[in-house]
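Retry 2 of 3 after timeout on previous attempt. Resubmitting structure tokens to design endpoint.
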């Protein structure tokens, strides 16, 4: 378990993390979300004692990280791909970590095999791709067989097979009763992986809730309706005081959870329905709605950059 209490980090006048209080519990995958600059990486670094809090406290199973004996056996983490000596082989990188934490050498071979790097175990890390570096970083996190695991953007550089693998791995680790804390910008992947969400913006806590509750609270629901008797259906809904709008593909959209009522109205008026399906906004839409006021860097879609903004490289010929 990871416990944060009023955790704060300032860099001069800049407040990177502002009084965060939450608990990452075992047995579930907890997703850590926030816009760029929200303070996620700084928070993770403070959990591992790499940055010191300006105020507040963070504990791992009730203990500060620097007081842990053989910390890799208590918490494993991937914060940055290829954070390793480029001149060392994958095997030797893990062996050094194992020796410093009292981990038997046989464990090195086990984790290399688990992440699919056995064939390149003797190759130097400087020749690794980003995806291979991610796999080696995950192997280092697993090395001590810890009860707590923390991953920052673990799918960066991974191909579809690798993304499926790390998703399955995190779920299986949580199913074993371990604490799994993962940060990612890929909302579609987080929606498939996380059970619980902690969302921050501008260093402050915005949400600490289950995935289902987060989406329900921060997005709209609607009913999608298609019928070959389009106009009759619109008239029927209008008479009943139900407002419907026409979507881009000609289907009707009705806000709220009114599927049963719409079906009853259609049956009463003998209107054929080809589709009557409740819809829920995605995690991405819910996240965008909640964090709209916390985004530090806004893009302006639809406004092209002038050619000079691209530098000399934009010129053709």
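Retry 2 succeeded. Sequence:
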């Amino acid at each position: 378990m990871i416990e944060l209490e009023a955790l704060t980090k300032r860099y001069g006048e800049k407040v990177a993390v502002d009084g965060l209080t939450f608990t990452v519990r075992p047995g579930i995958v907890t997703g850590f979300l926030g816009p760029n600059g929200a303070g996620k990486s700084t928070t993770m670094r403070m959990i591992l004692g790499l940055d010191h809090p300006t105020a507040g406290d963070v504990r791992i199973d009730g203990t500060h990280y620097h007081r842990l004996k053989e910390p890799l056996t208590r918490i494993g983490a991937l914060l940055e791909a290829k954070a390793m000596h480029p001149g060392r082989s994958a095997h030797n990188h893990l062996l050094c970590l194992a020796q410093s934490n009292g981990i038997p050498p046989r464990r090195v071979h086990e984790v290399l095999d688990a992440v699919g790097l056995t064939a390149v175990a003797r190759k130097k890390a400087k020749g690794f791709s980003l995806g291979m570096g991610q796999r080696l970083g995950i192997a280092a996190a697993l090395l001590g067989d810890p009860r707590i695991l923390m991953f920052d953007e673990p799918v960066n550089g991974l191909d579809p097979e690798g993304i499926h693998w790390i998703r399955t791995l995190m779920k299986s680790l949580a199913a074993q009763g371990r604490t799994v804390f993962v940060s990612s910008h890929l909302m579609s992947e987080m929606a498939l992986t996380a059970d619980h969400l902690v969302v921050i913006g501008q260093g402050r806590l915005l949400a600490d809730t289950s995935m289902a509750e987060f989406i329900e609270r921060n997005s709209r629901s609607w009913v999608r309706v298609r019928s070959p008797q389009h106009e009759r259906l619109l008239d029927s809904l209008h008479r009943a005081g139900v407002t419907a709008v026409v979507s881009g593909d000609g289907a009707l959209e009705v806000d709220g959870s009114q599927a049963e009522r719409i079906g009853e109205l259609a049956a009463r008026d003998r209107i054929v329905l080809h589709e009557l399906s409740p819809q829920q906004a995605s995690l991405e839409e819910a996240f965008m709605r909640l964090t709209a006021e916390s985004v530090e860097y806004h893009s302006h879609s639809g406004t092209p950059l002038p050619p000079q903004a691209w530098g000399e490289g934009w010129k053709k010929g």
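Attempt log closed. Residues 160-175 form the longest helix (16 residues).
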